[in-house]
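Design a sequence for this backbone.
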């Protein structure tokens, strides 16, 4: 049997881990189960990644890379600001509808990482990268269309991502297409209004500005 190097085995194990945990949940993602998913010895997993946490880090990084690539690829280069936000929203929502298990897995890993010091760094990196990419796309769309942002691009990006993640969780929990479409349209409208400075801030009792 031909020898397979660790560099070659690494993406295979990541793919197997994603398939297994997307199907059965993070709790099922033991090194033994992941090895069995690919049909290799358990020692192969440890040899390639060292620990289960290291494998989980690689899985989160892969899911993040896929999401970032999707965000970048969805942004049109010749559309208006509102149309750009709408295109990004629609493209990302299609991934939620077509690959809900991947989004659920990323949510599960994120919650695990909050309580796992060895995973917290990759979780922080995930959010920093997604916010940075989204901020860049917001800035590019504003510059291309001659739109002056009323707030920093990062603020717009964080608002967009936070709302989108909330809608994603609702879809995973209790999908309702009739309610989701107006909510997504409101998200686009809210992003545009925030960017334009027409979204009126409402004081929140007990919270400092």
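Sequence:
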């Amino acid at each position: 049997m031909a020898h397979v190097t660790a560099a070659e085995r690494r993406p295979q194990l990541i793919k197997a881990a994603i398939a297994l945990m997307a199907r059965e949940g993070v709790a099922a993602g033991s090194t033994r189960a992941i090895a069995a998913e690919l049909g290799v010895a358990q020692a192969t997993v440890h040899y390639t990644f060292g620990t289960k946490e290291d494998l989980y880090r690689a899985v989160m990084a892969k899911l993040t890379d896929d999401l970032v690539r999707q965000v970048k690829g969805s942004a049109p280069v010749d559309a208006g600001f509102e149309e750009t936000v709408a295109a990004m929203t629609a493209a990302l929502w299609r991934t939620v509808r077509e690959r809900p298990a991947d989004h659920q897995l990323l949510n599960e890993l994120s919650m695990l990482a909050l309580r796992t010091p060895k995973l917290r760094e990759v979780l922080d990196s995930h959010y920093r990268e997604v916010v940075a990419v989204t901020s860049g796309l917001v800035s590019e769309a504003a510059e291309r269309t001659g739109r002056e942002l009323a707030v920093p691009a990062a603020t717009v990006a964080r608002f967009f991502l936070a709302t989108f993640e909330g809608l994603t969780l609702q879809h995973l929990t209790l999908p309702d297409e009739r309610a989701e479409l107006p909510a997504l349209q409101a998200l686009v409208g809210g992003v545009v209004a925030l960017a334009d400075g027409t979204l009126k801030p409402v004081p929140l009792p007990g919270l400092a500005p």
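The chain has nine helices and no strands.
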